[in-house]
Design a protein that fits this description.
Helix content is 20%, strand content 38%.
């Protein structure tokens, strides 16, 4: 039986790697609850759904390919870049996903640091992207 890959274990593995690097990580956005105030630095993980990719001409779609954007946020441009550096160090080794062999995440870079004046106080952010790939173990 062919095992179709799932994005959630891969997203969980990225989040675990970032948290192991002592980063505060949110999935899909920051909390919107009243009274929430952001920490000085944090990361927001935005995974895409990924693709089940053919492993051969037999059309068995067991390989996995995804792009995950990690928005690195800080109270200053330097703090946002500090988070980006922590993310880069956290994602140098292959991820651990049960039943899968993962490639080391591929650093795809991102745009320059920007300032968000739509929040109070303003924050600086830089989104970085990583390609996440795996095959059945």
């Amino acid at each position: 039986m062919t095992t179709v890959p799932d994005v959630l274990p891969h997203s969980d593995a990225v989040q675990a790697a970032l948290e192991a690097a002592e980063l505060t990580v949110y999935l899909g956005g920051t909390p919107t609850t009243a009274g929430w105030s952001p920490p000085d630095t944090f990361a927001v993980l935005y995974p895409d759904a990924g693709m089940a990719v053919r492993e051969s001409l037999a059309d068995q779609r067991t390989d996995f390919d995804s792009t995950m954007t990690i928005t690195c946020v800080g109270g200053s441009a330097e703090r946002a870049l500090w988070v980006a550096g922590r993310v880069r160090r956290a994602l140098t080794a292959p991820l651990v996903v049960e039943g899968r062999s993962c490639w080391p995440p591929e650093d795809l870079g991102g745009p320059p640091v920007a300032r968000d004046d739509d929040v109070t106080p303003p924050v600086f952010y830089v989104p970085v992207q990583y390609r996440i790939c795996s095959t059945p173990a």
